[in-house]
Design goal:
Radius of gyration: 17 Å
Shape: elongated
Strand content: under 5%
Distance between the termini: 15 Å
Largest sheet: none
Structural class: mainly alpha
Oligomer: single chain
Helix content: over 70%
Length: 146
């Protein structure tokens, strides 16, 4: 059971980090190369799809990391779990206000304010990318240490 929990924790953290880093380094910069209205229009469905994938990965990765620690794994498994788990409250507390403003049906999608919100969202999302990467490095390091 310990090996399975370690595998799931590492897999979820790795998949989350890969997706988040892709968004931060590729998708969002490409979106921002478009005019503001287009960027805002494509941000919304991308956000919805990414949320459906990344939120479960963060939660399952957190649970599996905590389970690994509870099953006798090193305390660093708990560190990895907390790092990936922090993505959830960070999203709700810090990122969600920006998301709600971007998703406001009355928003002028071509406005300078919308562009500034998209830029802010990109910086905030980068924090999630870093948290996912750190969790992955901790988990992989522990697996390789074996």
């Amino acid at each position: 059971m310990l090996d399975f929990a370690q595998f799931v924790a590492t897999l979820c953290s790795s998949l989350f980090a890969g997706a988040a880093i892709y968004i931060s380094l590729v998708e969002h910069p490409a979106r921002m190369a478009c005019d503001t209205k287009t960027a805002a229009q494509v941000w919304a469905p991308s956000y919805g799809r990414a949320t459906a994938m990344q939120a479960p990965l963060a939660v399952i990765g957190f649970i599996a990391g905590v389970a690994t620690w509870l099953l006798g794994g090193e305390s660093l498994w708990l560190v990895g779990a907390v790092l990936i788990g922090l993505v959830v409250p960070f999203t709700f507390i810090v990122v969600m206000p920006t998301n709600k403003r971007l998703l406001d049906p009355g928003r002028n999608l071509a406005s300078a304010e919308t562009r500034a919100l998209l830029q802010q969202w990109g910086r905030l999302h980068a924090v999630r990318s870093v948290l996912g990467l750190l969790a992955t490095l901790v988990d992989l390091g522990l697996l390789l240490k074996g």
